[in-house]
Amino acid sequence: MKSNHVTLKDIARILELSPSTVSRALKDHPDINEETKKLVKTFAEKVNYRPNALALSLRRQKTNTIGLIIPEIVHHFFSSVISGIEDLAYGEGYNVMICQSNENYQREVIDTQALIDHRVDGILVSVSKTTRDYNHLRNAYDNGIPMVFFDRIVEEIKTDRVITDDFQGAQIATSHLIERGCKNILHLAAPQHLVIGSRRKEGYLKALEDHGIKADEDLIVKCDTREYVFSLQQHLMKLIEQKHIDGIFAVNDSTAIATMQALQSEGIKIPDQIKVIGFGDGPNADIAYPPLSTVEQKGYETGREAMRLLLQRLENPGIEINFSTKVLTPTLKQRQST
Amino acid sequence: MKSNHVTLKDIARILELSPSTVSRALKDHPDINEETKKLVKTFAEKVNYRPNALALSLRRQKTNTIGLIIPEIVHHFFSSVISGIEDLAYGEGYNVMICQSNENYQREVIDTQALIDHRVDGILVSVSKTTRDYNHLRNAYDNGIPMVFFDRIVEEIKTDRVITDDFQGAQIATSHLIERGCKNILHLAAPQHLVIGSRRKEGYLKALEDHGIKADEDLIVKCDTREYVFSLQQHLMKLIEQKHIDGIFAVNDSTAIATMQALQSEGIKIPDQIKVIGFGDGPNADIAYPPLSTVEQKGYETGREAMRLLLQRLENPGIEINFSTKVLTPTLKQRQST
DNA sequence: GTTTAAAAGGATGTCGAAGTCCTTTTATGG
DNA sequence: CCATAAAAGGACTTCGACATCCTTTTAAAC
Prior knowledge:
The structure is a homodimer. By secondary structure, the first copy, chain A, is an alpha/beta fold. Helix content of chain A is about 45%, strand content about 15%.
C-alpha cells in the first residue's frame, strides 16, 4: 500500500495530452475545445483527481490556512472560540491549523514557528499564562503575517484584538448580587498580575461603590481554582461567619461551583442563605446544583470576531487598515444560585 | 506590510553563492568548506532563515503532518484524546491538523477531502454520529493514507483501531447498580447503528442476564443527549412510575446528569429512590449533584495509543504489519449517585 | 493564391528545497 | 612534468500546478 495520488501529469500521459491542456481543460479555459474539456473532466472525475494543495500553495504563495494558538482546548471557552473561527473560516475557503500551547511558553514558541514554517496566511493567538517574552510573536508579525489577538492579548504588539470587558462583567455580576439583596459580598479573585484578575476585581469594587457599599479588603480572597476552594474551606467558613457574608462573586465558574459544594457540605443553603455568582458560563453552570448564575463570556463570538478581523486583512492585501480592538460585553445569565 | 520570507535563493544571492551551496552548507555537507559553512550558517541565523515547509513536503513527498477528524472538541473525552495524540506526535516531529466534524456527515466528508488534499501522512478518525456512508474514508484509505480509527470506529474498513471496551464498561456499570440493590434498571441508549450504542446496550443486557434479571425492551430508551432527556421528561417519568425504576444507566455522563436534574425537579431523591450511573467521566461528574458515579473512559490513553499505532506504520513504510485493535478497559469510578 | 487571424494545444518557467551530476581548482604521487 | 584525485562548489532536475509565451492547423478575407 503506497501513496498513489493522481497528478495532472498522470492524466496528461494517459489521455495523451500535455499537462497544460489538462490543467486548462479542468478550469474551463476558452482556448480548449469543448470535446477535450469533457473528456478531461470526465476522466478526472473518474480517477478522483484532486489538485495537490501543497503545490498550489507554493505556486500561489498563499496557503489558505490560518493558524490558531490557544492555551487549552479542554476549556469550554476556547473550544467555543474554535467553533466561531472555523465556521467563518470554512465559509471563506480557509483551513484552520490549531495549536495547543498547554499554557506552556516553550510550546507556544514552537507552535508559532511551525505556523510560520507552514506559511499560514494569518495567525490568531491567545497567549499562554506563562508567556512573558513576545519575540516569537513579533517574529511572525515581522514576517508579514497578519495577526489577531483574542482574550489573552499582548499589549506591546499593536494589532487587531478581540477582548471581553472584564471590568463591566464583574460590575454586572456584583450589581446583580446587590440587587438581589446581598450586603456583604465576598470576592474570590484571580492573581492580580493577570489582566482578568485585576480587571474583575476593579469591576467588583466599582459596583460596590456605585451602590454605596464600603469595600472591605478582607472580603477579597485570592482563590481561583476548584482545589484552592477546598483547601481554603475552613478559612472561608470562618470569614463567612464573622463577616455575615450573604453573597459571593467568584472569578470563574469552576471556583463558584466548588464554593457552592463546599458551602453545601457545611449545611448552607444556596441561594437562600448565600447567593453565588460566577464568571464565564461554560456548560458546567447548567449542571451545577443549583444551576449557577454567571456572566456569559461569548466564546463563539470572540472567535468569529477575531476571524472577521483577520479576514478583513487577508481579503484586502496591501490596503492599510487601522488596527481595531473589538470589546465584547458579557451579559448576565441568571439561574438559581442567586 | 508584505510577506517577506527569506529563501535559500535570497541567501545565495546576497552571499554570492549558489543555492546548492547554501543548502548544503546548512546541512553540514562534507563537500562544503568549514569557512563557507560558518558564513552561511551565521547569516541564515541572522536573517532568521527557515526552510519553507510546503516546498519540503512537496519535494520529500511527506508532509510530517497527520490529520485528525473528531466529532466535537468541546467534549472532554475528545479534547483529552487530542492531548494524547499531540504529546506523542510533537515528540516525533509531526504536526496535527485537527478537523471538527461537529457530528455532521457533510463536514466530515469535506474535512477528509481537505486532509487528503493536504497530503497528510496519516489520518486518525472518530466518525460522526450522522455518518452512514464511508466512501470518503475508504477514499483516503485507497489513496494509500494510513488510518487509525478510535472510539467511534468503522467496522467495514479494516485498519488499526483503538476502542474502549464498551461492552465491559456497560457491564461494570450495570452490575454496580445491581449490587447496590437496583432491580429495575433503565438504560438510556445511543443510536444502535453506532458501535458504542449497541455494545453498551449489550453490556447492560449481559449484566442483567448474569444476575438473573429478565431484560425488558421497554426499559431501553434511545436518549443520549441532555436536550433529549428534557424533551422526553414526561415519557421517562411515566416509565419510571409504571416500571418501578430504581436504577438508571445512561450511555454518557451528560445524559446521566440531565436525568438526575430532571428527576430531582420531579422531587425524586438520588441515590435514595433512584441510583444513576453514567459513562465517560469527564470533569462534569464531580460537579454534578450528587457527584456522578461513572465508568472512566481513558481519553488521553486512547489518543496516545492511536498515535502510536499510526506512527508504527509511518516509521516502517512498506513493511506489512497486521492490523491490530487495542482495547482499553474502563474502570468504575464510584461517587454519590449510586 | 497568398495574407491574416482565430482556434487549439504544446513548451517553458516559476514557486522553494535539495538530490544528482558536472566543473573547476588545487594538491599529491610517480 | 604530467596524471590523478580530492576539495569545493555550481548547474540541472524534480516535486505538482499553472501562467506565460510559442507553435501548429485551419478557415476566412482579399
